[in-house]
Fold:
Amino acid sequence: MNFKSPVLLVAILWLATTLSSQAAGISFGAWRWSTNWEAKTLTIKLDSVTNTRSSGYTGTLRLEIWVTNSPIGDGPFTGWKMGEYKTPKLDAGMKRTGINMTVPLLKRPPAGAKYVTMLITEFQGEKYVTQARSKSIPYTFK
Structure:
């Protein structure tokens, strides 16, 4: 894997529509991502994440950027997690806005046509569970 690309690669996706799981009680707004291959970082920007439940609070939430060979559906999938950002719990009915975090790049996907998806996972008991996901957006990595 060569992280010494000659230029800063910035890949930005604006996504206004998500496939949120309302039963899970988590929804989110437009998101985008960018990478700096030389610095080995991933920037995750999210307009908002909302706890739509009527009572209680969420577990710790993770915003995860995944790259896969095909769109992510409702079942299991394999791919490369480029990065994640943990955000604190949200009380019922509360919204967190303006998230803009740069995190370490966990995995650089191989070159070629792929799909990029944001997942929102919530800590429940001893593991993180997917609560919401975006549409899988085609992207070609160089």
Remarks:
- Residues 18-141 form a domain with the Immunoglobulin-like fold (CATH 2.60.40.2060).
